[in-house]
Amino acid sequence: MHVKTASTDYPVLNTIRDRWSPRAFANRPVAREDLLSILEAARWAPSCYNDQPWFFILAEKSAQELYEKMFNCLLPGNQKWATSAPVLMLSVARTSFAQSGKPNQHALHDVGQAVAQLSIQAVSVGIFVHQMAGFNKDKARTAFSIPDEFDPVAAIALGYPGDPIHLPEDLKTMESAPRQRRTLSEFVFNGTFGTTTDILP
Ligand SMILES: Cc1cc2nc3c(=O)[nH]c(=O)nc-3n(C[C@H](O)[C@H](O)[C@H](O)COP(=O)(O)O)c2cc1C
Fold first, then answer.
1. In 3-state terms, the chain is what percent helix, strand and coil (to 5)?
2. How many domains would you assign to the chain?
3. Model confidence over 64-84: pLDDT tens digits?
4. Does residue 49 lie within any of the structural domains?
């Protein structure tokens, strides 16, 4: 299995360290019980007022027509690789609180958090998630009859990592490139925004 372990400055959970976003997936369906556990992890994410504004439209490759409908919503750059994913999903946010009907300014935050939980749970059973902003929102809204008060957020490919040999050349290079992140000193502040925190050595 292709691994891209994060080179962390401080210890983190193995599942956080090992998660990455592959573009090559194995030609193997995702076990139903694993898929359900992954979605259950999203279910238990915290959310503003416990509104749980996340929704997922699911398309397994075995359901060919549905899968194609989802695949056709992806932008061409993502279609180049996502075709190998055994499962495609679309995350959707309810943009107003269910109780009050008032706008939920944190709906996107909460959907992202649910997807983060789902991604980490997935790694624990050897499944990897690749989120995509590159999809056509209007097309998705029409294809899946998403009402106006809900917003398509991100497309998601998931499956077991595959052999990058089958990827186009440019993507093959990206697949093996090391994962990079800003350092804590660049985004953890004390007092004034921009002033690095003094908890760092
Ligand atoms: C909301 C979101 C949108 C993304 N959109 C795309 C996309 O359209 N296409 C793509 O190839 N990767 C996409 N990515 C994947 C990121 O490029 C990737 O997470 C980032 O480079 C860090 O790599 P890692 O996840 O392997 O650590 C997206 C990730 C997120 C969270």
1. 35, 20, 45
2. 1
3. 999 999 999 999 999 999 999
4. yes
